[in-house]
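Q: I'm writing up a methods section and want to include an example of the input and output format. Could you take the sequence below and give the corresponding predicted structure tokens, formatted cleanly so I can copy it straight into the document?
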Amino acid sequence: MKVGTDGVLLGAWADIGGCRSILDVGTGSGLIALMMAQRNGLASITAIEIDSDAAMQARENVICSPFRGRIEVLPLSLQEFQSTVTGKFDAIVSNPPFFVNSLPSPDLRRTGARHAGSLTADELFSISRKLLSESGTLSLIYPFQDRELVMAAASRGGFGLSRETVVYPTPTLPPKRVLMEFTAGPGGESVGNDLVIEEERHRYSPAFATLVRDFYLYL
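A: Here is the clean output for your methods example:
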């Protein structure tokens, strides 16, 4: 999977300051796992990826990075991984397969990576509940149009919303994505804000530039 804005947004936005163990679900090229390691110098990161070729690429990227001693890449689905792990994680981050209502790609590998047939929102929440520490967080990015579906799945899985950011491509376009942080339990009053990516074509907003500038060579 190519590096995309969704992954960069989530990797920069997720709150992992005090974490010592982080799980990246569906790591693809390893982007988010590498961002977690860059942002938190003490955390150990486990990155899982259902596609074996993508997992191999992620492992190669990790080996070429300064963070290779703190990131483990495993070619497993979340469903497979849950039966192999004994510890708990302080944070789980995932740019999950979310094109629930779109037509599957003719490329089966890409379909598995981007369509919810391989990991439904209900599965993601129910398994994450078992893998998170008592005060752990689950941070996700989804299409804004699916927000209510995700909220319903979170409630069924025993999670409450603690923080969210609605992402707009430009000031004049409707929102496309929503960044969501969940904690175990019913949740209280959540903290929310908006983020505009581009003020105009090819000109990033100051808020977006501030959020992601540590991960771009030129911004």
